[in-house]
Amino acid sequence: MALAMTDKVLADAVWPEAARGRLLRQAALVVAGVVFMIAMAKIRVPMWPVPITMGTFAVLTLGAAYGPRLGLVTILGYLLIGALGFDVFASSAADNAGLSYMLGGTGGYLVGYVLAVAALGMAARAGWDRSVGGMAAAMLLGNAIIYVPGVAWLGVLYGWDQPLLQWGLFPFLIGDALKLGLAALLVPALWKLVAKARG
C-alpha cells in the first residue's frame, strides 16, 4: 500500500479545512488532542501482567485522525506541557514530573510517540485507516516504532546486559494487542459514520 499522502484524514472529514478560520480550527484541534491524550494517559485498566494504560492508544489513534503535521504539532504540545512539569503522563505525579521524569525510563517511549504519530499520520493519509486490516497494520507498525527507542533507552540507562525485553516489551504485549484491536475497529467505524452522515 503506497503512502501517496493524498487522502483526507478523519479530522478533515469531520471538520473540513477552509481558508477562513484555518488557524482557529487547527488551534482548537491541537487543544482537543492534548486534552484527549492527557485524559487517556491517566486511565489505568487492571490487567495481567501489568495494568493497561491508554496513552499509546490515544497517541496512535490521534496520529491517524489528525495526519502527520497536525499530529506532530499536537504531540509536541503535549510533551512541552509535560516538560514544564505538569502531571500529564501515565506514571507521572506532582512529585515526579517534568524533564526529570521524561529523561527517566519512559523517555525512549516518549520519543517513540513522536515518531509513531508521524507514521500513523502518513498511513492515514494513504488510506490505511479506512479498513480494519489497514488500521490494524498501521497500529502494529506504530507500536513497534514506540518500542524500539523505548527499549533502547532502557539499555542506555540501565545497561545492555539487563533483561530489557522483559522490562520494556513483553509485559505490555497483551494490553497493546487489545488496544490495537480496539483502534482497528473504532477508526474505520468512525469513517463509516461520517460517510453515512454525509449521505
Could you characterize the architecture of this molecule?
By secondary structure, this protein is mainly alpha-helical. The protein is about 70% helix and about 0% strand. It contains nine helices and two strands, in the order H-H-E-E-H-H-H-H-H-H-H. The protein has a two-stranded antiparallel sheet. A hairpin with a 6-residue loop joins strand 1 and strand 2. Helix 6 packs antiparallel against helix 7. It is globular and about 55 Å long.
Task: Quickly describe the structure.
The chain is an all-alpha fold and 199 residues long. The protein has nine helices and two strands, in the order ααββααααααα.
Overall pLDDT: 92
Give the number of helices: 9
What sort of overall outline do the alpha carbons produce when their principal axes are compared? Answer: globular
Largest sheet: 2 strands, antiparallel
Q: Which class do the helix and strand fractions yield?
A: mainly alpha
Radius of gyration: 17 Å
Helix content: 55-70%
Detail the poorly predicted runs: none
Content of β-strand? under 5%
- Please report the distance between the alpha carbons of the first and last residues: 28 Å
Number of strands: 2
Which strand order does the major sheet show? 1-2
Q: Spell out the helices and strands N to C.
A: HHEEHHHHHHH
